[in-house]
Amino acid sequence: MSERALRGTRLGATSYETDSGIDLAPRQDIEYSCPNGHRFEMPFSLEADVPAMWECRVCGAQALRVDGVAPEEKQGKPSRTHWDMLMERRTMADLEEVLAERLEVLRTGGISYAPPTPAPATKTATKVAPTKKSSSAAPGSKAPATKTAGKPAARPAKKAPAKK
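Predicted structure:
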């Protein structure tokens, strides 16, 4: 049996490849320091853009590069409120005019509240549940074998033997 036989191994659990003959990309180790005092190194390719901040491996805080410059904070957009958006569309004079019109309508009783009236009752058809077929019915018979309320199902009469 050869060395690379897969007999009795867990497929997918271990790799059978070796690192011989593989040239890794040139790397650089960048050191980061988090505000909680943890220091760690991360390997990066020489060609990669190295970030100024990285998540700490120990506590998850934002760690800064030891030899780097602190990143500039991005200016965020201020949140727009409903009032800000309203003021983009209308002037104060327009808003005062609309307010005066609506107050006048309310004072004159132009808007009245009428409770909703119930819809007229309509008769709804009731569905009749399908009846079960009796197990005593012959498999080839076409007559439905149903039970009536309180009465057992009627059995077909037996034929008398023919006399010769």
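Summary: The domain at 27-65 is CATH 2.20.28.270 (Rubrerythrin, domain 2).
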